[in-house]
Design goal:
The protein is an all-alpha fold. It has helices spanning about 15-40, 40-45, 55, 60-80, 80-85, 90-95, 100-135, 140-175, 180-205, 210, 215-220, 225-240, 245-275, 290-295, 305, 310-325, 325-350, 365-385, 395-400, 410-435, 440-460, 480-505, 515-530. The longest helix is centred in the first third of the chain and has 36 residues, at about 100-135. The protein is globular. The chain starts with 16 loop residues before the first helix and ends in a 12-residue tail after the last helix.
Amino acid sequence: MFHGGGEIGGEGLDLGVGAILVLLAMPGVLASMLMFEKYGSLIRFLRGDGVFDPYVATIPDEYFLIVLSMTVTGAAVLWRWNAIFLDRRDYTNLVALPIRLRTIFFANLSAILVVAALFTIVVNAASLFLFPAAVVGSQQSVSVFVRFAIGHAVAIFLGSMFSFLAIFALAGGLIALLPFRLFRSVSLLVRFVIAMGLLALIASSFAVPTMLDHTLSSARHGIAVLPPVWFLGISQSIWGNGNDPFYASMTTRALASMAWVLLIGTAAYILSFRRSFLRVPETADSGPLPLATKRFIPQMYLSRVICTSSSQRACYDFIFRTLLRSDGHLQIALAFAALSLVASAASLLSLDNPGMILAGPIPSTEFLAIPFILSYCIIIGIRFAFEIPSALEANWIFRVWLKADDGQARPVARRVLNAATLPWLVPTALVSTGVIFNWAIAIQHAAVLTASNLVLVEVLLINFRSVPFTHPTPIFQSHSGVSLLAYLFGYFIYTGYVPELERWSLISPVRPISFVLLSGIILMSIHFYRKQMLEMDKELTFE
């Protein structure tokens, strides 16, 4: 389950077990460490906090940690979606051996339970000790510490296990009910929707704790459909708030949901084993998308228009076909697309009065920021997918065919990134802005979005000199953390300050010239930087 799941094109995404466990544990470690600053006795004294009730004061952070454990565990299951269940690779390796099918069935079922327990423990191990120590570690009562730690541990462990079992039951049900080829296509859409749901849960951490403070039953029951609220009820019941009818009902719902997902997951696995695994030889390998779907993607046909040479057209087609036929690369692109949708919704919902977003003659900053959020996340997702290799055994054709100094890598990558966003994003922004406001503002908005998109692509490709998917996965380097911070900083600049500057420019017809000057300065700086590079740093590389 850790070393490949049989996904087409997913070989380059495999990591060692240790690396996977570290990635799963890091969010909990970072979130828990931040709690020491918030709940330290000295910090509380300096803030002037009076009587400190840890069971009430920590409800927002308890909810956030439950959401974090469920989200990280769910993301891990989505990542290993195709590796959890037995597939063609397992059939080829195991059925030929003198092992009974019943043994194979229980062996894989046991492995699934072990992986579920491993994910749950690793994701929550840090917060299990650090969060209680940060909140009640300075208090004299040992009983308070023990009670707080037990309530927190039970809530986050059950929430994490529920996330694993719920996605596992859904995947098993799809395998049991759908033909294999249809399952490959439907599962991609299902994973995309689940990823959006997990990201939405993280966004709910900013609003749900406030709604829990309301004494009105209608305000609380409006969020009772969220699974993290159910498991928050468990911690509250253990902490002594079980007399509250709302938390008591949430505890009952959490325990009942755990029983249901365990029952449904077991039944789905039994049915999927009998229906899917035993019929593996009768099914053919296929990509994550049906062939008919690719015919309706206009980017596949743009190479004849935007590419100037046969080598550019060939590389362009290779890049888009790899994105569409590779399960691993498509997962990365769709994950960032889901992030862009959730971030756009969170930006709109962050307003105190969402109705004001369309009020006035000039669009609000939040309205203008939507296409910038979509553009940034999609471009970053595809740019990140460029670094994940496809089948390296086949990259010899590019080594033999392309010359090292022909300069085709960056123009092709530039066309791919722009083709993935501009053909649909700019017309959508133009029409929506023109219908809601006026067409003069719409044209200016589309022009600013196009210029910003082009500048962002150039910045991301400033040192790019390889054909996407044709080199090994880059190893972790000392500046990788700095690069991550740069991406986060770029997100806030691109989706925050640029829309604010655009809104400022809409007030006067002369101010849009500032965008032309700013874009020109950035592009000229990149041009002069590339001219100063050594020739060996410009040549095509496969390293």
